[in-house]
Prior knowledge:
Largest sheet: 8 strands, antiparallel
CATH class of the largest domain: Alpha Beta
Number of domains: 4
Shape: flat
Helix content: 10-25%
CATH topology of the largest domain: N-terminal domain of MutM-like DNA repair proteins
GO molecular function, one term: serine-type endopeptidase activity
InterPro entries: DEGP_PDZ (IPR041517), DEGP_PDZ_sf (IPR046449), PDZ (IPR001478), PDZ_sf (IPR036034), Peptidase_S1_PA (IPR009003), Peptidase_S1_PA_chymotrypsin (IPR043504)
Domain PDZ: 196-268
Distance between the termini: 44 Å
Keywords: Hydrolase, Protease, Serine protease
Organism: Haloferula rosea
CATH architecture of the largest domain: Alpha-Beta Barrel
Oligomer: single chain
Amino acid sequence: MSSDPTQSVVRITATRQRWNPGQPWEKQAPRKRRSLGAIVDGPRVITTAEMVADATFIELETTDGLKRANATVIAVDYEANLALLKVNEQEADDFFQELEPLKIAEVPGPGDTLEILQVEDNGNSITTRGPIQSVDVVSNFLPAHFFLTYEVKASMQSAASSFTLPVLFDGALAGLLTSYNSKDQLSDVSSTEILQQFLKDASDGEYEGFPSLGISTASTEDSNFRAYLKLPDEVGGIYISKVRKDGSADKAGIKTGDVITAIDALPIDRLGYFDHEIYGRLFWSHLVRGSKAIGESATLEVLREGEPLTVEVPLERLEISDQLVPSYAFGTPPNYLIKGGLLFQELSQPLLEAFGEEWRSRAPLNLLDAWENPTAYEEDYDRIVFLSGVIATPATVGYESLRNMIVSEVNGTPIRSMSSLVAAFDNPPADGLHSIRFRDEEILIYLDEVTSTAVDGELMQRGISRLHRADH
Length: 472
């Protein structure tokens, strides 16, 4: 790296627009975020996925303010919270002419000192040094997605472009700051190992992502539970409480009720931790989501009803498109249908989160059940389609209070996704009355085709740009 660290970083300004969960045909007001990105070989710029999520425009600026260039995302992993940007070829040579890419650091360990880099509006750099206080597997953007993270003790200063920041170790890029707690003076920093794997995967232009087993687990601390599972006292192990359909574990024959006692010959204790040679105790998921690439295998030692098994699991990524209830939908417009004033949507975790901070207890129980127990619905649905709201129109008289009910059939046709719902309404019965049934509800409602079509025309005249979207 150059003796001047500002020659290896750039300011990033992202204009972001999210889709409106209550009115999925339109976007919310745009907002801007500013951060510092690190230049890596390519030249490319690395930042967090959170920085570019739902971005409609991304601009890079040199720290002296003399050059600007438009950027596009060429690889993004929302689960690992990393994104790689590029400048188009016509602008790249000039923009990066006097800038120097950072090398990737050797892997630091607990106690090593990292340097958090900031740049003020006037171009002066601020370097805040602090030791790695601990290393853990945590979620720093999307809940339930855990990756190796450094916790750095350092007193940060307030400075511009600080939504996310490059973090250095011996002058090389070690990670990215993802959060800062000013009260405790603690920063979460994405680890060098995760950074290295992300860049290696993205180097061929075909980013695949981090693999997963596709399981949910529980501890085996309770003595009665251990006796039920036939676990010897000298064995640790984690209980598999759920196996996702078509995930890596499912395809390899892993079953709900199995107990994983070791991964790649490393014993797993009763809480799910193993001993890492550098970091000490880490949660078991790092052995898959931080130490492996797609296409590699993990060797699981399993107890099934007290009998030992060794299972070789080829590792794949559980694609968001394969989830019954997608856990995120950045940059993807929501599927929906308005018919005569009835608003239907496909269920997603962002829609559940729209019920507020306490959405896990405030969202409707039937929708939460589909989110928590997808296997109970996957035989009947590719996506959960539900009636999310009703606009008062001549076609919906008497239905105004109906909402949050999962659709099972329209005109006798099973509804597996938004595209099947659109197709069902495109084929009205001979009597012109659409019939709509709902899962687990003793309600059958009717919608007049002539009246609802007239209403649809009026809604478009009032400003609804399109009546449906069923693109994915």
